[in-house]
Amino acid sequence: MKVAIAGAGAVGRSIARELLRAGHSVMLLERQLDHIDRDSVPEAIWVHADACELQLLEDAGLEGYEVVIAATGDDKANLVHSLLAKTEFGVRRVVARVNDPRNEWLFDGSWGVDVAVSTPRLLASLVEEAVSVGDLVRLMTLRQGQANLVELTLPPDTTLAGKPVRNLTLPRDSALVTILRGGRVIVPQPDDPFEGDDELLFVVSAAAEEELRAVLAPHGMEPPPGATTGLTPAQEAEY
User: Fold this and answer.
1) Does the pTM exceed 0.70?
2) pLDDT tens, 189-215?
3) C-alpha dihedral over 12, 54, 95, 91, to 10 degrees?
4) H/E element, 174
């Protein structure tokens, strides 16, 4: 892919190196001349330009890029760049860095953002995922908040142990996509059994997340205070 990155600071350069290592073409846009260090990422195309100036983006040929990453340290600049990339240049995928978590609510489709990445929230999610057993942890928001990637680590004494994947009846608009077991990544099949300490990754719509939480509660999760499992006694006994 051809990827344009606005902001050639430490974050932008690191992203560029990873993408170049994966075989993609990268353009780095940087408005501060003293921040341009071509030797730090020699394989990238370097452009001295303000990522919020329409004419400069036209001169850089932004319309020829499939992905834009707004990675500056200024949330206002990231929002403006995302909006221009989507509305003026028709970029298919726009990813934006959120520096201040209080601004997260702005980073959505109305500003041209397809995926917003908040480092503080991501780190908090990873900490929760590392220490939480039996709790549903949201790892990432997808499709402008329409769906989430969530994780559950089954406790060692889970009631699902030894039972096949097909026994877990999930709510509509949710899917079990991966089981992480030790060093293995398992694409779940209907007859695959669950084991204690399995890490389950689900993709679930925002509307169905609480229903998924309720379905998983009998298998080791503590439901939120006052919540019900959503299952009849007979269904709970089946699991």
Assistant:
1) no
2) 999 999 988 889 999 998 888 888 888
3) -130
4) strand 174-181
